[in-house]
Structure formats: C-alpha cells, structure tokens
C-alpha cells in the first residue's frame, strides 16, 4: 500500500482534510532520500576488496615483486592512512566526537588493517618476534585501542578487544564463543571469565564516568556474552561450581538491571536467558536425577510460560512508553 492510497483512505474516513493530505503528499514526494547507510556499506566493502585485492596480487607475484618492495608498500600505505587520520582528526574529548570528515573513519580502518597485515607479513617472512607470539598480538592491540580512543572509532575498539582476547588465546565473537574456544582447559575458562568481567566493568565505568560513554555498549555486549558463557561451561564441567554460579547469576542480575537503565531489550534477553539456564541447571543438578525426571515437565512448562509472559511485558519492565 503506497502513500497515496493511505492518504486517500484517511481522507475518505474524514481523519484528515484534503489540505492536510496535499501537504503530506508534497512532503513525501519532495523530501531528500538518505543514502547514508548505502555509502557506509560501499566504503566498508571498498576497504575489504582493496585489502583482498592487494593480498591476491602479492600472492600471485611474490617472486617478481620481492619481499622488501611489498613490505615498503604496505608500510607506506599504513603511514599514509594514519597521517591522513591525524591531519583531519578533531581534538580528543571524553564525549563523542563527530568528525565532519567521514572519510577519515574509513581511512583509519584501512590503516589498522594494513598495519595488521604488515606485522603479520614481517612475522611470517622474517619471524620478527621469534616465538613470542604474545608480543606480536599485543602490539596491534595497543595500537587499535589507542586509535579507538584518540579518533573515537568503534571499529578500532572492536578490533582492539578482539586482539586482547586473542592475546589470551580466546575467540570473542558472540557466535563463536562456545564453538571456537577450547573450554576443556580450565585456564581458558578462567581467562574468559576474567576478561569478560573486565570488559563489563569497563563498559559500566565508561558510562558512569562519562568517558566515551558511547563505547559502553561495545564493552557490555562483548564482555556480557563472553563471561556468562564461560561461567556456564565452568558450571557444567569444572570444579568450584558455586563460584561459577555466583558469577553467572551476578552478571545476569547486572544485565537485567542495566536493561532498565538503558531501555535495552538485548541486555534484558542476555540477563534472562543466561540466568534461566544457570538456575535451571543448578536446580536439576542439586535435586538428583530421579526427582529431576519427575518434575522436569512441570518445571519447564511453568518456567517457560513465566519467561514468555515476562518478555511479552518487557516494555513495562524497561519503562518504554507505548
């Protein structure tokens, strides 16, 4: 149903007048069309295609180009990207910095990507860092985190957090936390819990202290998936279950309360889902297999209904107006 049909129906029902219909129709046909997200997508794809194309050219012509030429080219491109970003950046501020030069954001992203490629190339070809792989990971992580705060760039922040997790031997992508991490090793479980709690704490502090408060969501989202998921694995498979239970429930309560402050359905879902799984497992683990089998159907029916009703009323809980 197009705008003209809708306006005609409103006029026929005498909800609006012919004059109001003409004004609305004129506005809809003459207003500018935003291509903001289309341009952003094209620029991100351009960076992806550029870096991929450079990689393919290097791979196919490595014997004729030479390693030194390749390294020098990547280094010059990286320096040019960071120089351009510094030149066109605004002064640092604890608040969100909205740079009118949007191109600098994508140039910075390209510079971070080429810096990572340069370091990886040097390590692969000349073993620049030897077997100290932790050093090779932490250097770009520091560069990305510095760039994120200096130039107010969420993409660089995500790259920095990902690098920090890699330094600890973890994968932090929400869809890969359980499938890509070897949580059979308790050391990794503990590292994931500590890193996740640290990220959540940074997200909370950044909002409370108003230091790059808009970075809070990135910290909370990444840490809020990593720590509870690791706590679940610890609760399922490792000793000191009471510790993992308290951590998981504490984070679930935090995100439920945080969802009210931020009016965020995502945080509410994170708190409810992780909390439900932790409480359900703990109840059935403590009452034994026979009682669990007898009460299982009733428990899941009642608890699922309770969760559904709670989520249906989420707007009331979050304080969102209809």
TrEMBL record:
Pfam families per record: DUF2157
Residue spans crossing the bilayer: 41-59, 65-86, 106-124, 130-149, 156-176, 188-205, 217-236, 242-258, 265-284, 290-312
Keyword Ribonucleoprotein part of the UniProt annotation: no
InterPro entries in alphabetical order: DUF2157
Keywords: Membrane, Transmembrane, Transmembrane helix
DUF2157 domain span: 9-155
Name the UniProt record assigns to this protein: MFS family permease
Source species of the chain: Dyadobacter arcticus
């Amino acid at each position: 149903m197009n705008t003209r049909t809708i306006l005609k129906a409103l006029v026929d029902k005498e909800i609006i007048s012919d004059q109001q219909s003409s004004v609305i129709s004129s506005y809809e046909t003459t207003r500018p069309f935003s291509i903001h997200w289309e341009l952003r997508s094209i620029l991100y794809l351009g960076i992806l295609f550029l870096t991929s194309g450079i990689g393919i050219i290097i791979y196919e012509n490595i014997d004729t180009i030479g390693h030194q030429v390749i390294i020098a080219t990547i280094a010059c491109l990286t320096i040019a990207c960071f120089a351009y970003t510094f030149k066109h950046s605004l002064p640092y501020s604890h608040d969100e910095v909205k740079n009118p030069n949007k191109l600098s954001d994508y140039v910075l992203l390209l510079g971070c990507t080429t810096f990572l490629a340069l370091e990886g190339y040097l390590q692969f070809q000349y073993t620049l860092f030897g077997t100290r792989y932790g050093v090779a990971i932490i250097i770009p992580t520091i560069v990305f985190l510095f760039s994120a705060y200096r130039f107010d760039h969420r993409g660089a922040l995500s790259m920095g957090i990902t690098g920090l997790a890699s330094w600890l031997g973890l994968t932090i992508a929400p869809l890969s936390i359980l499938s890509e991490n070897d949580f059979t090793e308790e050391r990794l479980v503990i590292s994931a819990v500590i890193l996740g709690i640290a990220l959540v704490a940074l997200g909370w502090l950044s909002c409370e202290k108003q230091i790059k408060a808009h970075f809070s969501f990135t910290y909370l989202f990444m840490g809020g998936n990593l720590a509870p998921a690791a706590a679940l694995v610890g609760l399922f498979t490792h000793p000191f279950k009471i510790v993992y239970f308290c951590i998981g429930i504490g984070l679930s309560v935090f995100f439920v309360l945080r969802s009210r402050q931020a009016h965020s359905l995502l945080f509410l879902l994170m708190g409810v889902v992780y909390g439900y799984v932790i409480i359900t497992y703990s109840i059935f683990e403590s009452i034994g297999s026979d009682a669990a089998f007898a009460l299982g159907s009733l428990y899941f029916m009642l608890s699922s209904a309770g969760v559904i009703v709670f989520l249906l009323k989420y707007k009331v809980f979050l304080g969102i107006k209809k």
